[in-house]
Amino acid sequence: MNDLGLDHVIQCRTSPLMLKFHNGSRIIFKGLDKPAKLKSINNISIIWIEECSEVKYEGFKELLGRLRHPTLDLHMILSTNPVGQDNWTYRHFFKDDQNNRFILDDERLYKERTIAINDTYYHHSTAEDNLFLPVSYIKQLDELKEYDPDLYRIARKGHFGINGIRVLPQFEVQPHEDVMLAISNINRPLLRAGMDFGFVESYNALIRLAVDHEKKYLYIYWEYYQKAQPMMKRYKSSSNLPKQKS
Fold it and tell me: Has residue 167 been placed in a domain?
């Protein structure tokens, strides 16, 4: 503040890190490594989460609970580079296939740039919108297209998508009847069942699959997902699952 010549109107404090103005307004800086620490904050009218995709969903929900003020309008600002579509920011503000929830097609946002839906204001920007980026830096971003398409999609185009290397890059979704017909035509199929335990956020998953060794095809023909259930309840639920036919 001294360098800017504002020390006479803004006070800097370090515990907690804060800027305090003469009219009583405050800017408080907080990390979200432990969201429970935010419970002591009150009378907040504006919250800005920078790089919100790096914040856990629990932290975002905790901040929603802190956003309240007796007289002022409430606003929350979230800014981030788009990452994978599995990130909570995409599922919360755009589309969540798992829970059949749709808010906005991100492709529409890329085209229109600015959209308001209910009480949420969306804005999409790219490197051209940053007046402080040198032309040489934008050129470097353009070169990413040749050797790192994922980073090019995020840093240059600002698009969500599949982030990183796909485990099953040729995965296809087909009608169940077609899958079962294909399995019935396999010569000596390898049939297996798999399970992965989850907890509160991640899912408990059960799958049944068949492998066609000759064609090198893997078919997943039965799935069961559930989360946020006590262990005993999960056990009771799984005992009622349909049995695999021999």
Answer: no
Number of independent structural domains in the chain: 2
- Among 129, 146, 166, give the residue marking a domain's end: 129
In a domain, residue 238? The reply is no
- Residue 71: which H helix or E strand, with range? none
Q: What is the mean pLDDT of residues 118-129?
A: 95
Does the pLDDT value for residue 246 go beyond 50?
no
134-151, pLDDT tens digit by residue? 999 999 999 999 998 888
Strands (E), 52-119: 75-79, 95-96, 101-102, 114-117
pTM of the model: 0.67
Helices (H), 2-72: 57-66
- Locus of tokens 């919108």: 129
CATH number of the domain where residue 32 is located? 3.40.50.300
- Single-letter residue type at 107: E
Please measure the distance between the N-terminal and C-terminal CA atoms of the chain and give it in whole angstroms. Answer: 75
pLDDT recorded at residue 245: 44
- Are the CB atoms for 176 and 221 separated by under 8 Å? yes
Instruction: Return the DSSP state at 151.
Output: H
Q: Is 220 a member of any domain?
A: yes
* 188, amino acid identity: R
159 located within any domain: no
Comparing C-alpha atoms, which of 146, 147, 145 is closest to residue 159? 145
| Residues 9 and 118 occupy one common structural domain | yes
Q: How far apart are CA 238 and CA 226, in angstroms?
A: 10
Residue 22 binned pLDDT confidence (cut-offs 50, 70, 90) = confident
Same domain, 92 and 192: no
